[in-house]
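From the shared-data thread, chain only:
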Amino acid sequence: MDACRDELTIHPEDVIPHRTTVAVADGRPVAVAMLTGEPPHGELDMLFVDPDAIGKGFGGKLFRHIADLARESGCHSLELTADPYAEPFYEAMGAVRIGSEPSQSIPGRVLNRYALKL
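Structure, as tokens:
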């Protein structure tokens, strides 16, 4: 995790108004997701769920919310890059694997690319 900490850290200047969503439970943030890109192709960026909150529906709610934002913005597809271990989640959300790309922070590691038709 330390190898990709810089790549995965969200700084205040990275937050995009109306395109960044934080899920809060018991007064603390438990998940975050951002929509980047421009129509016709939106990009789901940084969908992360606190390990203690995994399996409680936050990831699915954020994914659907970002997909709705992308659709309302005029996007026809939502694409994303994710860890291969997240494949069952993204497939359950309706995304289809469209390829792969090398990790920018861990040499030799490959991440999957997915797309959701909106």
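The chain has a mean pLDDT of 90.
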